[in-house]
Design a protein that fits this description.
four-stranded mixed beta sheet; alpha/beta; homodimer; 40% helix; 15 strands; eight-stranded mixed beta sheet; 15 helices
Chain lengths: 419, 419
């Protein structure tokens, strides 16, 4: 975990405001769930690796009985959420009578994972998700994708590149090559690395698991054919026709053509028969966004029609798209600060002989126009103080008492070029 | 803990944005600390009752050894923060080399207390603090007070009423009556209830503790004199002259006259010699804001010049003001929704025969103007669907495909008056 310094907080706040403004125009409404959830909910959520990374919270008061505890279950009742999807499913199950139907939810907030900290990854980080609960039509995917691409463009992320696939198409591909249902998981885990390690290494990995070599050979040939440029949904649909329901292809085609129709050169949207996405809970279309040569995806999502059923007792169609907020902040933070309509930042520097009522009244007048004004006690080394003020973003100053009396005129602070 | 439904999230988001905008104009910058802090920091922070209310987090991996643990200390290394002041002191001690000097910080975020939930209180709630670290001059108090009153006014809280006192004046009062230093704590705890139980009951409580009855009688007489309308700093200063340093009075007088000079009928600011404030760490001026007949204060703060020294090894003058964010949301949430410049919310209702590309293109046009547009699959019971849309805040709708083709014209949804 880490502290966030003021300049980065401002960048994060701006990014949050930009994203929320776009999502609101699409009719998404922000919901908030508590940071702590029942440990039972978190541990039974079938979220794979994440469940090992839960920060567990001790019971309190009389309910905590250290002496007679036989294991963790007796000591712990709560955990910090590790994502926003499991809490959203619980939230929907608890509150659906008080929520719009369908629910178009946006969530932005911290999650916690007890990972070994690595470069650029922290144990507390922000996730930013939109989800549509209660819509089976592909219009849900279209809204999620267009809203996310619009948000990325509004953030200044140029030409985001969307890849689209469907879990049912991947399953058809695996079946077609002769992999039994039980093998699909390990095949997809290997296939997920195609971008990084290439087709040969992927196939080697699948062979190593012990799957039928003939099936692996068929997979290699079919993937080579389907991913050869230009990859197209029509080609994949034709090759997998016997395994793939027509409705799956129609849904994908509708999403792709609608999203492409809005692109106008601002973004790309392509079908990618090898896109996997890691999470096991996806049931339909899946999608991911890349940006330039940034090595990892900056957004990802898909349809998960069965997760809410586990909590609510009846299935609710659901679909979500998550922006990698920390990655976006990383990308934006490397850019030179945008000039544009920056506000005037004025330091009112005063000593004890100044009349505080005059200073405060003048500050009030400037603040009313939207300027930033800070009152600063004059230091002995005034030159150094001006240099420090420049360093912290002040570009104007006024000295009180005003020389010769009268109305104060802000003067520019010459920014020193340190180092 | 609790879920927050969309309408309340929007109210909270608006309140947050309003507060931050005002504080920014005063030169405060937002900082963020992690939710989890070291349990040692939290437990040694001299924060009284709050330390008993910490959510404790279990160690992880190999470091968690249940079998050989002899007590909580062996099991726990982290805790959820219970306020924003202790983390800010830690943040300043860790990062002061990278922070503006003085630091004008605004924090807004969740804190956690393992309290027995009561009406209107939750175990996760939001605090909203501004603090100035590194300024000994009363200009810090003036900035904090004016910024907070401006923020409350911007939120629509009419005529907030500020009360101002000083811990050193309270100490002088107690000394003057003959209470030894060691008795001050229990005297102040009783005095803190003056508003609620009256002077007689306060004095009875102090007598019951076992303090010198003659001192209690002197306190009763002196308090009656000093709080008799009109209470004035001058009267108190004259009565306590022998016990009270002149600088304390001058500081209070300067704060009061500067703050009063800006009031212009928008707020009240008065000296209150009986104001105590609960926290033990205050060292100088203290202040609190009341609103109308709302029974509890809506903001409070004061100077705490010694807290950072405990962490940093050298004292840093510090002063803070906290808005009771949950109370503000409570007050604002009871008001009828303000009309004003609400955005158009348009539902695009469509069936399978509609062209999704046309719908999406039309939606994009409206969204570009700032309108909110949501695509909604047409339900069988269309009349009920319109009623539901009205319930969730939509006031216009368009049906696709558009009858007779051509450009769609939004029609108003007649809001049903349910119940």
């Amino acid at each position: 975990m880490r502290d966030v310094l003021p300049a980065e907080v401002e960048l994060r706040d701006q990014a949050t405001a930009t994203i929320l403004e776009v999502y609101r125009r699409y009719g998404f409404r922000r919901v908030e769930t508590p940071a702590l959830e029942s440990i039972r909910l978190l541990a039974r959520s079938e979220s794979g690796e994440n469940e090992k990374l839960i920060f567990r919270v001790l019971k309190r008061g009389e309910r905590l009985d250290l002496a007679s505890a036989r294991g963790l279950d007796d000591l712990v009742d709560l955990g910090l959420r590790f994502d926003l999807t499991v809490p959203l499913a619980r939230y929907y199950a608890h509150n659906h009578g008080d929520l719009p139907q369908p629910l178009k939810a946006v969530q932005i907030g911290p999650v916690w994972r007890a990972e070994r900290p690595q470069k650029g990854r922290f144990r507390q980080f922000t996730q930013c998700d939109i989800d549509i609960l209660g819509v089976a039509s592909p219009v849900a995917e279209v809204e999620l994708i267009l809203a996310t691409l619009d948000a990325l463009l509004a953030l200044g992320i140029e030409r985001p590149r969307l890849r689209l696939n469907d879990r049912r198409l991947l399953a058809a591909l695996a079946r077609r090559c002769g992999f039994p249902e039980a093998a699909h998981g390990s095949v997809f885990i290997a296939l997920d690395k195609l971008d990084k390690i290439g087709l040969d290494a992927v196939c080697a990995e699948i062979r190593q698991v012990g799957h039928d070599p003939a099936a692996v050979d068929r997979l290699a040939a079919l993937l080579a054919e389907l991913t050869a440029a230009p990859a197209s949904l029509e080609k994949a649909a034709a090759a997998l026709a016997s395994e793939l329901p027509a409705a799956v292809v129609e849904g994908l085609a509708s999403i792709l053509s609608t999203v492409t129709g809005e692109a106008a050169g601002r973004y790309e949207a392509v079908f990618d028969p090898a896109l996997v996405r890691g999470m096991g809970y996806y049931t339909g279309p899946i999608f991911e966004v890349a940006h330039g040569d940034y090595g990892v995806s900056i957004a990802g999502g898909g349809r998960y029609d069965r997760m809410i059923g586990n909590l609510l007792g009846r299935d609710v169609p659901a679909c979500g798209f998550s922006i990698g907020f920390e990655r976006i902040v990383d990308i934006l933070g490397r850019r030179p600060e945008a000039g544009g309509a920056r506000r005037k930042r004025v330091a009112f520097v005063f000593d004890e002989s100044a009349d505080p009522r005059q200073i405060v009244a003048e500050a009030g007048r400037l603040r009313a126009t939207g300027d930033i004004v800070s009152l600063e006690v004059r230091r002995r080394n005034f030159r150094q103080q001006l240099a420090d003020l420049a360093r912290w973003g002040y570009d104007w100053y006024v000295v009180f008492p005003v020389e010769g009396g009268g109305s104060p005129q802000p003067r520019p602070i010459e920014a020193r070029t340190d180092g």
